[in-house]
Structure formats: structure tokens, C-alpha cells
Design brief:
The protein is an alpha+beta fold and 161 residues long. It contains four helices and seven strands, in the order E-H-H-E-E-E-H-E-H-E-E. A seven-stranded mixed beta sheet has the order 1-2-3-4-5-7-6, with helices on both faces. Helix 3 links the parallel strand 4 and strand 5.
């Protein structure tokens, strides 16, 4: 059994820029069997909508992960989260998810949803650590008979406590 790598330090959570795109696409293509087309990223970067957010986790000049989400207050939706393979199991996904959930909560988001492959147990474990629970199932979401769970999480706020 592989042991977790040493956690990384000094992450920076920032908006994705066109200069990040080449590194993001490498991560996207190694992480997903059906990766997003580069134009989806380009459009989101060049013509950002106020409710769509493209962010990266950067360590110095190296992009090590990214997240894409939407916020239609009071609801957030995470569309894409990936970490470079050599940086997995080192806290990058947790950092991206923590940063995103804080951002969503600060902007008035109260619930966050995402889809995760039924077969992707490591991702499900990560999301459960943040309070996400299965809310439903999307049949054939990824094609070729591959279903997705709909995960949801209610965000706590100072108003509610």
C-alpha cells in the first residue's frame, strides 16, 4: 500500500488565466477519460460570467490543480475538480475544496452540489469529509453506462448558528 506523500505548503488559490491553460489541460487529460474540450476553459477565462468561476491551485509557477464551479445564490455547483497525478494525496484537493466552499459561503451560498462517478470511491471519500451526502443518482451521466451520484452539502453560516 502506498503511503501519503508529504503535504505541500504555500498554495495559492487564484483565478485561472490563459497563461495557466497549458498546465490545466495536462491535468484535465490525465485525470479524465472524457476531458473537457480546451474551448470550454478558454471561454470561461476569456468571457467570464459573473456566476462562473475558474480557479487554480498554484505552487510558485506550477499549476497543481484546479476547480470550476458556479454560484447562483443560494446554490453552488462544482463542475470540475482535478489535481496533477504527482501531487495527489498531498492535500491539494482539500485545499481547493476548502477555498471554494469558503468563497461560496462568503458570497451567500447555502448549499453546494456536484456529481461524482459511482465508481470514484476516493473522490466520494473526500467529499464526505466535507459533509457532502448522496442526494440522488444520474443514470449514464458519464456515458457508456457510467452513473454519477449527486452529492449535496449544506453550508453552515454565522446567521444560522
Amino acid at each position: 500500500m502506498a503511503t501519503p506523500q508529504t503535504p505541500l505548503q504555500e498554495f495559492i488559490f487564484e483565478k485561472m488565466r490563459l497563461s495557466h491553460l497549458a498546465q490545466v489541460l495536462v491535468i484535465e487529460n490525465e485525470a479524465f477519460a472524457a476531458p473537457w474540450h480546451p474551448d470550454m476553459f478558454k471561454l470561461g477565462i476569456r468571457l467570464p460570467r459573473s456566476n462562473e468561476h475558474f480557479y487554480v491551485a498554484r505552487q510558485r509557477s506550477k499549476i497543481i490543480g484546479y476547480i470550476v464551479f458556479q454560484l447562483l445564490v443560494p446554490e453552488g455547483h462544482i463542475f470540475n475538480l482535478a489535481v496533477a497525478s504527482k501531487y495527489r494525496r498531498r492535500g491539494v484537493a482539500k485545499y481547493l475544496l476548502t477555498s471554494t466552499l469558503e468563497f461560496i459561503a462568503e458570497k451567500g451560498g447555502r448549499e453546494v452540489f456536484l456529481e461524482v462517478a459511482v465508481s470514484n470511491l476516493p473522490a466520494q471519500y473526500l467529499y464526505r469529509q466535507f459533509g457532502f451526502r448522496i442526494r440522488g443518482r444520474r443514470k449514464n451521466y458519464y456515458g457508456h453506462g457510467k452513473d454519477a451520484y449527486i452529492f449535496g452539502c449544506h453550508l453552515q453560516t454565522d446567521i444560522e448558528t
